[in-house]
Amino acid sequence: MRESASALVTGGSSGLGRAIVVALARAGARVAFTYRSNTTGAEALVREVSPPAEVLAIQADVDSDAGAARCISETVARFGCLDVLVNNAGITRDALVLRMQPPDWNAVLNTNLSGAVRCCRHALPHLLASSRGRIINMASIAGVAGSAGQANYSAAKAGLIGLTEVLARELAPRGVTVNAVAPGAIDAGIVAAMPEELRRKLLDVIPMGRMGTAEEVAALVVFLAGREAGYITGQTIAVDGGTTGAGRAIT
Question: How confident is the model over 53-96, as pLDDT tens digits?
């Protein structure tokens, strides 16, 4: 990655987002990240990577247009530009469709999908002005194969994949690449907190027989954000130990 590149990672104070912030910073980028309420985690992350990296924590929520706009404006105000946008912010409100309430459906779609759209719209003037703008949407294999009990989450992630393909076509003539990363069972965040019995069930459907790490996902994000990935766009790349490639789905 080009030194002094400016990146914004939404939802960056814990889990996958945190690993992505660390990896981008160690690759030489200046990184801003957003967080909703995890002030302790955000402050610890800033201390971990700066110095030498330049890191900015922004307390903001992408579930409103004003929040998304502020994420972008504060990043540009601090770094003077924006080269890379990583749409990672997401929530879950799991339930079977029969029991899923409209507020839970709406909340997940609003944050996980509409939040990414808001950030893209506000970031695009800056990404188009960059010598090589990048958008990386954090999808999920739940958006590829579906996940029982997660209709709202799966629909939002599938929407992110569709958004990726549309934006890739719209922005390719301007040199901005747009790709999606679809993690499978990654031993971080919600998965790390699962009961051991459920973790064993997950392992049964992963051909590699293990869960992935947040660092493995972050390494792909860093590659897609770099100059070497300049001819890759409109792709959804699974990091799932062969789960979807083997025609299986985690349920």
Answer: 899 999 999 999 999 999 999 999 999 999 999 999 999 999 99
Starting from the edge strand earliest in sequence, which strands make up the sheet with 134-138, in order? 55-59, 30-35, 6-9, 84-87, 134-138, 177-183, 236-239
Q: Does the annotation count 153 as an active-site position?
A: yes
Give the burial class of 212: count Cβ atoms within 10 A of its Cβ; 0-12 exposed, 13-18 middle, 19 or more buried: buried
Give me the number of domains the chain comprises: 1
| Residue 133 lies inside a defined structural domain of this protein | yes
Report the CATH number that the domain containing residue 225 is assigned in CATH: 3.40.50.720
Q: Which position among 68, 153, 237, 241 bears the catalytic label? A: 153
Q: Containing domain of residue 203, as a range? A: 6-239
pTM above 0.90, yes or no: yes
Whether residue 52 has a cis bond before it, omega within 30° of 0: yes
